[in-house]
Write a structure and sequence with these properties.
Rossmann fold; 46% helix; seven-stranded parallel β-sheet; transmembrane; EC 1.6.99.3; binds NADP nicotinamide-adenine-dinucleotide phosphate; 365 residues; three-stranded parallel β-sheet
Length: 365
Amino acid sequence: MATILVTGGTGFIGKSIVKLLCQLGYKVRVSTRSLKQIKALYELSCEFLVGDLSDLSFARKCCSGVDAVIHLVGIIVEQGQDTFKKVHVQITKNMIQASKENGVKRFLHMSALGTRPNARSRYHQTKWTAEELVRNSELDWTIFQPSVVFGIGDDFTKRLYKMLFFQNNPLLLFPLIDGGKSKLQPIFVGNVAEAFVRAIPNPNTFHKTYPLTGPEVYSLKEILLLILDKGQIPYKIESFPFYTLSRIVMALLSFLVYPLIGLKALFEHWRGDFWAPYLLSWLLLSLLLRKSMEKRLLFNVPSAVALPLVGIVEKLIKNPPITKEMLVMLQEDSIADSSEAIKELDLQLVSFKTLLPDIIDAIVM
Ligand SMILES: NC(=O)c1ccc[n+]([C@@H]2O[C@H](COP(=O)([O-])OP(=O)(O)OC[C@H]3O[C@@H](n4cnc5c(N)ncnc54)[C@H](OP(=O)(O)O)[C@@H]3O)[C@@H](O)[C@H]2O)c1
């Protein structure tokens, strides 16, 4: 049976592809920067090579003796030395060169829907550059461009869930950027895995670029409401942010202004008859805030306002729930016709809505 190298095999999508390859009897080699990442694949009989694919000699070692390369490495947030340019472009360049030098002809490349020349986000720009390198490589390449990928453990649903529920969001406010109008066509991770694995021996898929999209189109707002409904959490959507602003003002008064006034009064020995109305009004305010917090508030924010705000948050917080780059991508629709891939690779698409309860249960556990 053929030996397949999977770069990025330890990631969310990579794990599904590696598992499917192993089930089908392929010999699988996985490259990783750290053995810590391989826990979920431990029971599988894969070969693991540890190193940095931006080092050409490691890329060469990984490609030695394999029959095909599935190249999945990619990032959604730049961190330190791991820039989009390095991870998407430089590593792809290395993988192409290492494949050629080792006589590996078959190269399956992971890109993303929305890549194009002069794309707005640097994620899409660098993914496009990487695609062009693959297309001009003279290898037997196939490129896949998925929309957002869902499944147990996916980053997309997890981020939204954590923002909608308690973590990172003490005031339970959720901004709907431009009304959450952008459209998405989520595809199941198992379908993505099938597409890659079925394409390996299929010459009809050589030199083709396939969008991969799921069976349903949702607006971002619809996805958020599905998540809220599943959690049976009451919410309110407001187009004019009256409740949102009043909640922010009440929180500022309760947790900042009132305690400061109280401290000042203590130090300055204010008169005793000051304390009763002070404490009563504080109690009343806290009760009002508590009442208002019974519902999550989803409020519309124009992207022109949200972008600079997210830029500031990104500079202040180490792992922000959303980055400017993600916001730029979320402003665009991520939908496409994937009937060619469905037909060629015989995909039975799984619905996001159907799997969502299981995805959320796994996040909550
Ligand atoms: N998830 C989606 O919704 C989605 C949609 C469209 C396209 N994609 C693309 O699909 C691919 C996989 O996505 P995913 O969601 O599975 O991502 P993920 O869970 O974050 O996994 C990323 C993988 O890339 C590897 N990696 C990251 N930085 C690396 C670096 N500097 N050098 C070498 N390896 C590095 C990681 O390997 P180690 O940590 O083990 O080294 C990991 O296995 C990416 O190219 C992504 O852009 C994803």
